[in-house]
Amino acid sequence: MSFLSTCTASSLTDAAKSLIAGNLVAFPTETVYGLGADASNEKAVARIYEVKGRPTGHPLIVHISSINCLDKWARSIPDYALKLAGSFWPGPMTLILPRTCLAKDFITGCQDSVGIRVPANSVALSLLKEFENLGGLGVAAPSANRFGKVSPTSAKAVYEELDAYLSDLDCILDSGPCDVGIESTIIDCTTSMPRILRPGGLVSKVIEETIGITLSVETNQSYVNKIKVPGALDSHYSPNSKVVLTGSPQLGDGFIALESVKSPTGVVRLASPKTNTEYARCLYDALRLADKKGLKRVFVVPPTGDDISVAINDRLEKSSFSK
Ligand code: TXA
Ligand code: MG
To answer: Is pLDDT above 50 for 230?
Structure first.
């Protein structure tokens, strides 16, 4: 596995060629780092599952460089979805749409829909453009972590998590820490009204205020299970340390809270973000730090509000779920 810390034009071309050749490339996006493979290559996609230790059958998001590539992968696109894509791509938003025959069962988990996203990260976009120039159509990429674990927000975190599973031909592109730090907002666009399946980096209030589209949040668990959203499993995004959200912190616990919240005596402060945006950016790194320090428990004081804290709270609930 090679680690490319200078994402020059030539290293991005090499990475795009490597994807075309069927290898894996971990790359930065504005949300979290993704583990990419050619979305048309079944063998390459199978390696994503192997490296992540992810059960097969869970669908993957296809990353494309622009809205112009959308109709290769999706059909019967509702007007509201075009409006969403036109307004928020590139950006931290994944649209679930009816699939074309290009989106094979090994991408969609045998569903009739496909998840598509245009990431807002210059390295990701250059990689995708190079890949498309070479004849590629889309890059399948889940978060570059082992199944059920915390998503990586830096190339170093990808390396620590996946180096043991990647081959010499795979590579990791490093372009520093992710801007948003929490995965994309997933919006189901397969019915007459859009529904949020996973809150994420694009805040629903912003969508509603910008384009006047009202989004409902899918709360019917049997529907969510039926469409296989692994991020919707009760337990996910978990460090080895036990994440605790209620009660009181104990001596020796890790502690994550906004800077305005004072550390209780005897805890190990892991992060002190000043704002909710900063909270999202540093949360996963702070959870990883808890593991590095070998802490048994991390006590987290969740942020409040109708901004990115909605997504933070979703992840905290899942990471604190007792297995
Ligand atoms: O921000 C992100 O979305 C990151 C970056 C790398 O783009 N990717 C990411 O991928 O979080 P992953 O696989 O870790 O989570 C994607 C979620 C999964 O829960 C998956 O089930 C859901 O998207 N998904 C993908 N295709 C779907 C589909 N056709 N229907 C329903 N859910 C789908
Ligand atoms: Mg993930």
So the answer is: no
SS3 30: coil
Closest to 195 in 3D by CA, of 206, 183, 186, 207: 186
| Residue that wins the pLDDT comparison between 323 and 68 | 68
Dihedral through CA 139, CA 52, CA 232, CA 69, nearest 10? Answer: 0
Residues 74, 100 contacting (CB under 8 angstroms): yes
Please tell me whether the overall predicted TM-score, pTM, comes out greater than 0.90 for this model. Answer: yes
DSSP string, 37-66: EETT-HHHHHHHHHHHTPPTT---EEE-SS
Neighbours of 179 (CB within 10 A): 17
Quick one: which ligand is closest to 146's CA?
2
Average pLDDT, the chain: 93
Tell me, letter by letter, the H, E, C secondary structure of 168-187.
CCCEEECCCCCCCCCCCEEE
Distance CA 283, CA 252 (A): 19
Contact 173, 15 (CB under 8 A): yes
CA 165 to chain centre: 19
Q: Which numbered ligand comes closest to the C-alpha of 230?
A: 1
Angle at which helix 155-162 crosses helix 276-292, to 10 degrees, equals 30
Ligand 1 and 31: CB distance under 6 A: yes
At 299, list the tokens: 């006590």
CA 150–ligand 2 middle distance (angstroms): 8
- 32 within ligand 1 shell (Cβ under 6 A): yes
Q: Which atom of ligand 1 is nearest to the CA of 115?
A: 26
Residue 35 CB coordination number (10 Å)? 29
